[in-house]
Prior knowledge:
This protein has 247 residues and is of the alpha/beta class. The chain contains twelve helices and seven strands. The chain has helices at residues 2-12, 24-30, 41-44, 59-65, 83-87, 119-126, 139-147, 149-166, 171-191, 196-203, 209-218, 222-245, and strands spanning 18-20, 36-38, 49-52, 73-76, 93-98, 108-113, 129-133. It has a five-stranded mixed beta sheet with strand order 3-4-5-6-7, sandwiched between helices. Helix 5 (83-87) links the parallel strand 4 and strand 5. Helix 7 crosses helix 12 (222-245) and helix 8 (149-166) packs across helix 9 (171-191). It is elongated.
Amino acid sequence: MGSALITGLHRSGNHTVTACDLDPDALEAVADYVDHTTTDVAEAAEADVVVVAVKPDIVGAVLDDLELSPEQTLVSIAAGVSTDYVAARTDANVARIMPNLAAETGNMAAAVTGDDVPDEVRTLLDDVGEFAEVDESQMDIATAVNGSGPAFVFYLIQAMKEAGIDGGLEPDDAETLAAQTFKGAAETVLRSNEDLDDLIDAVCSPNGTTIEGMEVLWDSTANEDVAAAVNAAEERSAELAAEFSDE
């Protein structure tokens, strides 16, 4: 997630980015997308906005090594780690975000929360996609919808691709058509003032091909299965949060 965010910020060309990691392989992987790499936490901590992009179980150790001032902003993208947990371990203003891998291409969906989300964080998020400001209590479900969501969408794209292959399309052609269809449909949702049911109806001509396929979906439990996947991811996020609230 962190490397995807770095790549997206690089693509925007609007930020000076320093990457800090103790793993030289991790730094090498992002070297082409940052202005500077370092293993010195103190050097990285000089930034106006410091992003902590690590696994939840080492957030505490990283925060212990970061000395930040109230004039700085610390952004955490660790799943399940509350803003209260982070704020108790830093003097900086704290914002918590849950981005997703599409930050790499500037098409990220992100949720952000914090007592006072600064404009510089909003600008950063705008440069890599779309975001919604939510309450801390909503971060578990946001993590499931937009953080885990890309994997669910990849699964559905794969299913459509395989159906296309079974029908005679070449694999590359089937993947292109399926993926671009999802991309185009998503962009239509974001740009349209119509609700989703109306958009479905707009594609479903009477006695046409789409209505036949939709009848299969309406008669299935596909919507329930997708909701179950989201709920499972939400529950895991809540479990992670509980582990930190107990510390």
